[in-house]
Amino acid sequence: MASRRAELLSIFQKTATEITEREFPVIAESTVISELGIDSLGMLEIVGSMERELKVQLPDEALAGIQTVKDLLELVEKKEALAAGAGAA
Amino acid sequence: MASADVRDTARQARLYDMYKTFFDKAEQDRRWNPLRDVPYEKINKEAPESLVVVAETFCCVESFLPDYVASGINVVRPFFGQAWFAANWAYEESKHSVALMEYLLRSGRRSPEQMFDLQATLMETKWEMPFATARQMTIYGCFQEMATFVIYVKQEIGAKACGDECLATIFRLNARDEIAHCRFYEDVVKVLLEEDREGTLLDIAHVARHFQMPGVGIVPDYEERIKVMREEGKVDRSVFLQKVFFPVLKYLDVTRQELQDATFKERAASSEERRTRAAE
């Protein structure tokens, strides 16, 4: 799980760079997304791009509550775990 | 909107009907006088300065009305219903700044010299339309009016908590106008979606990618003012998605996934355009 989190963090960093067309210093899980100069609509665009790449769909109602990178990665992991569970069943 | 749309009489008739509905409701239920219907005697002259800054900031943003009107009405000029709406919109918005100005003066928290000097400073900068087409500006109107509505509602609660019944009333009256404006814009966008869903989705995606509130870059000390407004109105960053963006999409019957696909296409088209330009 820890290595998956590292992968997701790296995907977030790459996606944020692509979407904002800006270079960021190394982003930590505890980073508050707005402190990267990314507003809520920018965050939504990053989420959309990650959803496309990871083939997951995050619920709209959960997105407004995302403050930190960790909040987002946990949401993705949760969704992936649910999808894997559904696949196994 | 292409020029062919101007000759689309069925579409023009729909827009005009929408304007009549808006206008009739406004005349019947929503008319108010900023000099007579606001209880200035209930101003709390001891209200914290932060609340006064909130009122002043709203007043600053509303003060760019000449620019909003000049640009906004011309972009929809060929569309009768929308152009007449823009004229009515301007009248209603003009009352917002008058009420806020009266509050600031009658509360004694700002002098006439301060207010007119501030106005003069504001008018040294010109607000420019953030988007080029009537369709994009109409979409912008949905998000901007809804955001302004939500902020006024939040600040009304703050004003009440500070015991300022007068300012709470101004915020409530302004909020009621803003949501009516938002609904008109949303109804127009619904028509546009019916006519050209793909093109309109691309425009919604474009507007969302470049959205900024109108005060950005033109109101002095905007960042500091917004910080005060966020604290005063207890507005955090989640509010925009929760109370503005998703509700507008829901009303328009547009899903986030549709918008994402359009965003993806828009990004791909912009990259292609940049590559072509670089190659030339």
Describe this structure in words.
The complex is a heterodimer of chains A (89) and B (280). Chain A has 89 residues and is mainly alpha-helical. In chain A, 65% of the residues lie in helices and 0% in strands. Chain A contains 4 helices and no strands. Chain A is globular, with a radius of gyration of 13 Å. Chain A starts with a helix and ends with a helix. Chain B is an all-alpha fold and 280 residues long. Chain B is globular and about 60 Å long. Chain B starts with 8 loop residues before the first helix and ends with a helix. Classes of the chains: A mainly alpha (89), B mainly alpha (280). Chains A and B meet through helix 2 of A and helix 10 and helix 11 of B.
Percent helix of chain B, as a range, is over 70%
Shape of chain A: globular
What class do helices, strands and sheet pairing of chain A give? mainly alpha
| Morphology call of chain B | globular
Instruction: Report mean pLDDT of chain B, rounded to a whole number.
Output: 93
How far apart lie the N and C ends of chain B?
Answer: 29 Å
Average pLDDT level of chain A: 91
Cα-based radius of gyration of chain B, to the nearest Å: 20 Å
| Strand residue content of chain A | under 5%
**Relative helix content of chain A:** 55-70%
The largest interface is: A-B, 16 and 16 residues
Order of helices and strands of chain B: HHHHHHHHHHH
Low-confidence stretches of chain A: none
How is the main sheet of chain A built? none
Radius of gyration of chain A: 13 Å
Q: What keywords describe this structure?
A:
heterodimer; A: 89 residues; mainly alpha; 65% helix; globular; B: 280 residues; 11 helices; 0% strand
Short description:
Chain A is mainly alpha-helical and 89 residues long.
Summarize the helices and strands and which ones pair or pack:
The complex is a heterodimer of chains A (89) and B (280).
Chain A: H1 2-20, H2 40-54, H3 60-63, H4 69-88
Chain B: H1 9-30, H2 49-62, H3 65-75, H4 80-106, H5 112-122, H6 134-161, H7 165-195, H8 197-210, H9 222-233, H10 238-252, H11 256-279
Helix pairs in contact in B: 1-4, 1-7, 2-4, 2-9, 3-4, 4-7, 6-7, 6-8, 6-10, 7-8, 8-11
